[in-house]
Design a protein that fits this description.
Layout: H1 2-40, H2 45-57, H3 59-67, H4 72-84, H5 92-118, H6 122-167, H7 172-182, H8 188-202, H9 207-217, H10 221-236, H11 240-296
């Protein structure tokens, strides 16, 4: 018991000392980085200055960047998972690593305390931090898959509304902006992605590069196909309205075929469940008479 209390006091002391030691230096470094970004993003100074103020207050996000992995490949994978789940802010990756390691440390201390006070099995003490270490990544992947599924579900409706606006005389960028504004409360995820695409184009990113980044942020198959269609129309100069209409029609046909396939498989799946209930009365009727005769001695 004394050992567990001593470890808990030492861990809390080290954490507070580390925070007091590095927080000021890290916050100054974060402010300097934001100033450099402001210089390279002319026209969005107010937006990025507000982000800088929010980032400077998030001291634990900055500490998370420091204690996180240094391998660029691991950071890129984690960043892609965060973006797919809808967390694309400057401070989200730092917040993720800080929360992850904080929960691991807290779980380890709690399990050690339980082992010291109540005699919990040592296997559980070792297994619990490992499970907690793997859990955040699985949760992040689940959130990303769920968000991408919502985008795929709402994409045909979004494209149909864009086709209506383009048939009324709007260009496809203006149509996307108008539809994103109108459907924001109904389909927020897909509208947010297209608004981000428009913001990139407005600050000077080439359309082809912005579309490629759009596909990178959303690795769903339908988004990839849509980006290929738009890039091809950018290069060839053909009608985007007709391409989007044809693409939307193909999406509906594909989904109709998938529904028909699922409906065809339903009877076979139900047979596996229904068959035991059908066979049981038949076996009772078939064998019951013989069992009664055997019981009577015939």
């Amino acid at each position: 018991m004394e050992l567990a209390v001593l470890l808990l006091v030492v861990a809390v002391t080290v954490f507070i000392f580390t925070w007091l030691l590095v927080s000021r230096a890290l916050l100054l470094q974060a402010k300097q980085i934001q100033k450099e970004r402001l210089k390279s993003r002319v026209g969005l100074a107010s937006q990025y200055s507000s982000e800088s103020r929010r980032y400077s207050k998030c001291w634990w996000c900055t500490i998370g960047r420091i204690i996180g992995p240094k391998n660029s490949k691991d950071i890129e994978v984690t960043q892609q998972q965060l973006v797919s789940a809808g967390f694309r802010g400057e401070n989200h990756i730092g917040a993720y690593f800080f929360l992850k390691y904080s929960v691991i440390l807290a779980t380890a201390l709690i399990m050690m305390s339980l082992w010291s006070w109540y005699g919990v099995r040592l296997e559980l003490v070792i297994l619990a931090p490992i499970v907690v270490m793997l859990l955040p990544e699985r949760v992040l992947i689940y959130l990303g898959n769920k968000r991408q599924a919502e985008i795929n579900t709402h994409l045909p409706d979004f494209l149909d509304m864009c086709n209506i606006c383009m048939n009324a005389g709007l260009s496809y960028l203006v149509a996307i902006k108008r539809v994103s504004k109108e459907l924001k409360t109904v389909h927020p995820e897909v509208c947010f992605e297209f608004e981000y695409l428009l913001d990139q184009i407005q600050i000077g990113v080439p359309r082809t590069e912005a579309l490629r980044q759009f596909a990178q942020r959303n690795p769903a198959k339908d988004i990839q196909n849509l980006v290929q269609v738009l890039i091809q129309n950018e290069k060839l100069g053909s009608s985007i309205g007709e391409a989007l209409s044809e693409f939307s029609r193909r999406m509906y046909q594909t989904r109709e075929q998938l529904l028909e396939e699922k409906a065809a498989k339903t009877s076979a799946k139900m047979a596996v469940v229904i068959m035991p209930f059908l066979m049981m009365p038949y076996l009772i009727l078939l064998v019951g008479e013989r069992m009664v005769l055997l019981g009577r001695g015939f």
